[in-house]
Design a protein that fits this description.
242 residues; alpha/beta; five-stranded parallel β-sheet; 10 helices; 12% strand
């Protein structure tokens, strides 16, 4: 089984040490006797060239299945660099984002959630500059509609969408996010079903997990090690059932 993951910061392991959920899924499938080759690539469905990039990666890797993370953070969580872009333009926003990433690199250990200094600096900049989401819910739906249309073109290619739970905490800018998320998933599910693709909702998996260890990082929308394990096992199960 050849699996291509159109990944994000979680699938890269940016916020949790240990195996990411795609790696957990691969290990689980391999332990079950499946011959698995996994490739993860950095991806954002919001860029103008996202669908064409996905098409190119599918042609290069020739996967049996493409796994696509799906989250509401793009319209539910505010980002300072998006506010900077709106106020001062793309060039200044690019410089700000590079500086923000450099600061993050020096104040957050690799594979771990941000510490006190990192969080304090982010709170101050959000208070001074403000924050805005990356996009709207309707625009996000259209981005995924286009992506799934492109992924439906190669004959025999399967696609599994992996939906994250709703974000939590002070960074969330959307009221009634669970209801907005449900609307999003219904629309994406409708689009996916027309192409015979599947959607895995991981929210019930995480909500039903026993134990007291937190599964989500303090920012409210990244997975901790336990979250990666649960999502990875759920993805492996879904892939076995394809």
């Amino acid at each position: 089984m050849r699996i291509l993951v159109l990944g994000n910061s979680d699938t890269r392991g940016d916020f949790a040490a240990g195996a990411t959920w795609p790696e957990v899924a691969r290990a689980s499938l391999s332990a079950n006797g499946d011959d698995v080759v996994l490739q993860e690539v950095r991806f954002s469905a919001l860029t103008p060239t996202a669908a064409e990039y996905a098409r190119r990666k599918v042609a290069e890797f020739e996967p049996d299945i493409v796994v696509v993370p799906l989250g509401t953070f793009a319209f539910s969580v505010g980002f300072t660099w998006v506010r900077v872009q709106r106020l001062f333009g793309q060039r200044i926003a690019d410089r700000y984002r590079r500086a923000e990433e450099a600061f993050d690199t020096h104040t957050r250990p690799a594979g771990q959630a941000p510490g006190r200094l990192n969080n304090a600096a982010r709170r101050i900049t959000r208070r001074i500059i403000g924050a805005r989401p990356l996009t709207t819910r309707d625009s996000l739906v259209e981005s995924y509609r286009h992506l799934l249309q492109v992924l439906a073109q190669p004959e025999g290619l399967d696609v599994l969408l992996v939906a994250y739970p709703p974000e939590e905490g002070r960074l969330v800018k959307v009221r009634n996010l669970p209801e907005e998320r449900e609307r999003l998933l219904c629309e994406i599910q409708s689009i996916a079903s027309r192409h015979h693709f599947r959607l895995l909702d991981t929210a019930p998996v995480l909500a039903g997990a026993p134990g007291l260890d937190p599964l989500i990082t303090p920012d409210g929308f990244h997975l901790r090690r336990g979250g990666h394990h649960l999502v990875g096992e759920a993805v492996a199960l879904a892939l076995r059932e394809r």
